[in-house]
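User: Before I run my own analysis I want an independent prediction to cross-check against. Here's the chain; please return only the structure tokens and, at the end, one sentence I can use as a sanity check.
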Amino acid sequence: MSMAPTTFIHSGASRPSVAIIGGGICGLGIGWRLAAAGCRVDVFDKGEAGHEASWAAAGMLAAQVETEPGEDALLALNLESQAAWPAFATELQGVTGVDLGYRDEGTLVVAAHRDDAAELRNTYEFQCGLGLDLTWLTGGQARRMAPHLAPAVSAAVYSQKDHQVDNRQLVTALRKAFLDAGGSLHEHKTVDAIEVADNRARGVFVDGALHEADIVLLAAGAWSYDIDGLPSFARPPVRPLKGQVISLRMDPRAPIIDHVLWGPDIYIVPRRDGTLILGATVEDKGFDRDLTAGGIYRLLEAAWEILPQIEELPVKEMWVGFRPTSRDDAPILGPTPVEGLVVATGHHRNGVLLAPLTIDAVSAFVLDGDIRSAIQPFGIDRFYANASPRVAGVKE
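Assistant: Structure tokens:
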């Protein structure tokens, strides 16, 4: 059973003060909404804001083609957030003037060989059985949409509704929106601990000093578990899942692909500036930042197998990111058993996709104490059955 707010730590006409741990997409986005609503908001980031998982991502909005068995509740969440993306992008671009690079050509999932086609067909039929809007293509039909696909590609699935956004431009826009709304951003400031007294979050310790706040929002991505000061039943069970990524440089006047492209063990994402992103490995190696020859080789080999023209493209950049992954690969959103402590973390591979819904639902909870139905299945209580049911919201 999901927790519902029973006590509130703030009342009256004034807005609460909020300390946010983590300056990624969630932290900056929720901070923007709260600052725009009149809250005093401070965002603390241990490095440069938005330069961890938010920066390392590829920006795919792939609610349909990424659906796997056993993810019914997550699918509903993903689809709701995906549907919110066009309006969210329009709003954020209007507020900041930053082009988010939103593209709606759709996504192609291809079978590299005939042996892959049977597995692709099974996945397609499963996803269609959930009511998803997908189209089966022969290899020839796929090459008419994407002429540079390898001749061996024998079948494909086209998802018109799975789009993309430039995640780095999204970070830039959210940072600007947050600051323009009056928020305070503290970069290269590590939160040492959350101050909890009498089961209530009182603020955060930074550089040995207590920064008091009515609400503490934990949005530290893969580092969320490691923040000191929390009882075990309020500590989000999130771990890092390493991903190595490489980008190549196309001629933007003659790109070799326009659609987001998925193949066995690879995704390929084109940007309007000619950047072509190849990702990503999945490695349970903690916070290991090493790029490896084997990881990069596997990415290039898998990409070349379905899009051989990458062979002539210059390498632009290589990097490592850490997906914030919960025990069930689903996000952890909303209140906790500690009054005044709210979480927005554990998004695994869906952080960019879930940005509009996470930002709006968590902000709404902080402002009015209501838990939207979309996020009710994703509270921290699903991991801690014996945790205290008392949680906190904010009322005007």
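Sanity check: The helical segments are 25-36, 53-56, 72-96, 114-129, 139-145, 167-180, 293-306, 355-368.
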